[in-house]
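#structure-requests
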Amino acid sequence: MVWGIENSRELYGLKGVLNNQLFDINEKGELVVKIKGKALSIAELLKKYGLPGANIRILPWIGEMIDYIAGLFLKSIKEKNYRGSFRPVYPLKVNHHELVLKSIKKYGEKYSWGWEAGTLPELYKALSIKTDGLLVVDGVKDARGLKRIAENKEAYGEAIIDIESIREARLLEEIRKHIGDKIWIGFRIRPMFRGESIWSSSSGLSSKFGLPLSSIYKIIEKQPWIKNKVIMLHFHYGSQIVARDALKKMFTEMINTYTVLKEKYLPNLRYIDTGGGLAFDYESTLSGSLYSPDYTFREYVETMLKIFKEHIEEHGILPPDIVFESGRAIVAPHRISVAKVIDIRPYISESRTEIELVEKIHSSKTIKELSEIARESENIINRLLSFTENIDMKRRELLEGMIEAIYEEIPKKAKEIYMMDRNNALKELAENTRTGRPLYRYLTSPSRRYVLSFSLFNILPDNVILNQYFQVIPCSMLDRRPDVLATISDITCDSMGEVSEFISKLPEGFDDIFTEEDNRLLGIPGKRVILRGIPLHLPRENEEYYVAFLHTGAYQDPLAMGHNMLEGYPEIIIDENSDNELIIRYDDNAKDHYPQ
């Protein structure tokens, strides 16, 4: 079987709805980024500046995502004859890097893109970047911040101050006489429904955010002037809501709550802030997993507008304007983190011990038989490892070699069985690719450890904090079949500094499903499989080999840690000038902290 570029596109998720627009593989087998009709090789960029690694920041992609999201809303509003408008704001918490904010200001101006601020520093930053759009202010507030809003009315089109407690309602009394016609009030609502995501605990009736209805009624009763200044309801169901069915429940609850409060208590309501929740497909699989929604951006927009329009028509009231604040979708793609491989090490051992069990592995005729031998092998290894406290060096060497032999021979035999009878072998492999199955562990385990010149804590802190998944892809050799599955280790003195999970979803008909060198499984066609190592190549002698982590532009900049004193990372910034010509510049940000 001949491996080609198309195989790599499928394996590494470059055929996905978004990735297909941003990335490709050139005829040399190099990963390229597509910008303004040009294709730039990531590996060549790193080599040009002699870097051990870098964050590549592609600012025009922020503009493309802004145009894409705005275009979906504006088109759907027109097609559905929805009479409300699109009012976007960018939440500064997602990424407040100066270049990011300048790009949102630049590309979002034509849509009156505004700001959402949840802390005092974010509020002060938002007020310093003037917009004719909305300024939405939430989070815990004090009198200083509220007065600053009143003193800087030229910095926004309208400001909406979200009330999240009775205390904050009282604070508004201090600036009541300064509110005028540019400052309004929103109620952040504590929803009943809890969406499924990593952050689902932040929604529902016990949520950290928002007011229960009982508190809203108390505020209206004690400060009746407020009800005529409330123009927005703000909802939060947690970031990354991955299920389409959950969206329907969310949007239905939003519009039901809006309708009741507008008809009975808040006559000037005209905005719904749908909060976060729009899930970004970090896997590029649309699988409905924790890191991949089962819907597209388009389906999110159309589902929202359909539910809102149908409900409003039933009640005969004007539809709400939609405040959209999903910043992850706007900025996640713009940053790619790249690091060079500086060392390749064996995962277990560099030698093997010939044992009788290997002959038993060789004698198996089907994947089912091999699965039973894998279970037996695992039991034997576990027993032997339980008696290592007094083991001498000779026996330790033999034990290392025995384990290595088993990890080598089981995948090798599985590949051999598959090559002889693909249809039956594939069915039996599919039954064994479940977490907890011994054969699954052997087939998807790494055989190498690749050490990269980066700090996971600095570049991808969400991987450490939340086990957030980021797509990993080699920057070269993509015209070749991957040689091995490997764990990626960073250079920190910390056992958490490793990446070892790769999510594979090969299409039906994909038949080249094993690596070249260590015979590990690359996936099962038509099935989502979690591999315990990253498919990588063995670079040729003196060849520089880079690995890229995609879509690292949301939250990773503000969360970056200085673990092991590894602060900063080199940056390659791709921008465009007033003539729409690409400009590439290099920022030497702590280059000498990382091994070459």
